[in-house]
Amino acid sequence: MQEKTFFQRYGLILGFVILAIVMMLPNPAGLTPAGHVMIAMLLFSVTIWMTDSVSYPVSAGLIISLMAMLIGFSQNPANGKLYGTSAALGIALGGFANTAFCLVAAALFLAAAMTKTGLDKRIALVVLSKIGAKTSNVLAGVFFVGFILSFFVPSTTARVSCMVPIIMGIINAFGVNKKGAFAGVMMIAAAQADSIWNVGIKTAAAQNMIAVNFIKTQLGVDISWMDWFIAAAPFAVIMSVVAYYVLLKMMPPEISEIKGGEDTVKKLLAELGPMSFDEKKLMLISVILLAFWSTEQKLHDIDTSTSTMIAITIMMLPKIGVMNWEYAQSKINWGTAILFGVGISLGSALLSTKAADWLAKAIIVTFGLETASALSVLAILSVFLIIIHLGFASASGLAAAMIPIIISILKTVKTPGINVVGMTMILQYVVSFGFILPVNAPQNMIAYGTDTFEVRDFIRIGIPMTIIAFALIMALAATYWKWMGYV
Predict the structure, then answer these.
(1) CA distance 285 to 292
(2) Cα(196)–Cα(6) distance, integer angstroms
(3) Cα–chain-centroid distance for residue 141?
(4) Interval 153-166 mean pLDDT
């Protein structure tokens, strides 16, 4: 068992110390008592998430309990009375009664169905079987698999968890050195490709649902699957190409072609046997679901969460479905779902108590953003998100803490013509930039756990990727997204 770091051992204590200090400070002018509590809660939450001092489910319990008590004994400016712990607990649990939470929970079931039937593995192997045995082609195949699976498996962790054993199987079957450049570059590619396509596809990552939910509740705009894809896909396509060449340049494989590579992939595919009836059913359901996602607000008004819930229900029906409840509930990472619900609650409370507005004004004054140009605002906030992400192990946690504040900042900026919805969506893309450290995203840690590369390998690839991704964000903001009216 790996020894805990200093911050892992004492992060929870540090969180409580910060919470106590902020709570003891005088209430700032213009901030409600409940808003003061939420500033303290935000700093407490960020501290325990960044230090990884407790598991996410435990952190969720702490945040819910503290919000119930601290807000409960705060004055409600609407009537001058205390909120009461019952009403405060309702605020703390509000994220669980949310369509975005429903979608993320349903996505976990869909990922479980893919794993049970092996459809995700079949898709990956079919793609790899078509690309040949050159190492550069195999690397391109990993990116293409990441792209394809992003449409059908709305869980980054599940997609990388599918790819890792396949890549390890190929490495072992080919007799390639596990600690060599080829093995390392394949694993890093699996993680980075999924991070890139978290940006390109709305349903590919839970953090996107957090941003979409806040945009809908605070700005009254529901971003459809296709609108997101049209806006974000060009970034993901360009970054996939960039990442491919960065990886080849920074970690050139020690071999140019794998002998017997095509035969080995075909053998792995043959071991799966013919496509099962459950795989065919799941493929049909997934394709229909993708069709509903992509035509939302265009051909029908069924929202993404509802269509996904219907699909999951069908997947679990006797005779018709592909799995039962007993199997599904044992394969679901409920900690992810709990973190997501609490994250929405935290962000919603920051907004409802006006804490986000107060923080936004403080940030605007500090950085002089009040009359800055749209591109300047975008650049400063993007750099801020990239830096703070270095301390986060969850993009969902980062989105929950920062997107409400980002919305408040953008609403406060007085520069004419700024599209708050579009800018928020673009900044959410930056939230998915977990390129630099293995600990910045669960998918990175899964790849790192294979012991095929060192942390320094990930960093020296991640830094240029992050710089290029930031430059691409600014370039598209000045051109493509500006033409679309998002900036």
Answers:
(1) 11
(2) 32
(3) 23
(4) 85
From residue 53, how far is each of 20, 45, 46, 184 by CA, in Å? 18, 11, 11, 29
Q: Which amino acid is at 157?
A: T
What is the Cα–Cα distance from 208 to 231, expressed in whole angstroms? 13
Residue type, 207: Q
Q: What is the pTM of this model?
A: 0.86
Per residue in 122-133, pLDDT (tens digit) is 988 888 888 876
The conformation of residue 296, written as its DSSP 8-state character, comes to B
Residue with tokens 């650049």: 379
Give the single-character DSSP code of 439. G
Provide long-range contacts, Cβ within 8 A and 24+ apart, for 272-280: 272/118, 272/121, 272/122, 272/125, 275/122, 276/117, 276/118, 278/116, 278/117, 278/322, 279/117, 279/118, 279/119, 279/122
Bridge partners, 296 (sequence order): 300
Dihedral of the alpha carbons of 61, 62, 64, 65, in degrees to the nearest 10: 110
Q: State the CB neighbour count (10 A cutoff) for residue 337.
A: 21
Q: Are 112 and 326 in contact (CB under 8 A)?
A: no
Among 382, 420, 407, smallest CA distance to 199 is for 382
pLDDT tens sequence across 413-459? 988 889 999 999 999 999 999 899 887 888 888 888 888 998 899 99
How far is 193 from 252, CA to CA, in rounded Å? 17
Q: Residue for token digits 């230090």?
A: 51
Residue 445 · residue 439 · CB < 8 Å:
yes
DSSP, residue by residue, 443-457: HHHHHHTT-SS-HHH
Give CA–CA dist 15/175, Å, rounded. Answer: 48
Taking the C-alpha atoms of residue 163 and residue 189, their distance in angstroms, rounded to an integer, is: 10
- How far, in whole angstroms, is CA 434 from its chain's centroid? 9
Asked if 113 and 127 touch (Cβ cutoff 8 Å), the reply is no
Residue 101 in tokens: 């939470």
Distance CA 222, CA 304 (A): 10
